[in-house]
Amino acid sequence: MTVAEFYDRVESFTEDERVEWCSKMIKLMCRLSLENLNTFQETWNPDSKGLKWFFAEQAKLFKICIRLEWSPVGEAVRHVDGLLPLFLETELV
Fold first, then answer.
1. Looking at residue 12, what DSSP letter applies?
2. Closest by Cα among 51, 52, 83 to 68
3. Any bridge partners for residue 2, and if so which?
């Protein structure tokens, strides 16, 4: 799966697909994106917001982070982190 395919499908993953593909996407992300995803997860209260809500909001956040990393600013942030630019065609492995 490519980054573009992940972006298009992240909101409709099954539970097994979510585990597999989100963990692969995380391996490609810059520190800023990872910090945002971690903060979201740490502040989520499962008692007030259910798992369905969490997955929907997490998918939105993944898409925001990917858009940031595709941008010229994101490319600079990735460079500072020692990462190559993120391309639509980049394969998740």
1. G
2. 83
3. 91
Can you read off the two tokens belonging to residue 8?
């298009």
Lookup: tokens for 26: 């995380």
Is-contact 62 86, C-beta < 8 A? no
Q: What is the pLDDT of residues 4-41, one digit of tens each?
A: 999 999 999 999 999 999 999 999 999 999 999 999 99
**Assigned token pair, 40:** 């979201």
- Yes or no: say if 78 and 86 are a contact pair by the CB < 8 Å rule: yes
Q: Is the pTM of this model over 0.90?
A: yes
Helix (H) / strand (E) element for 60: namely helix 51-70
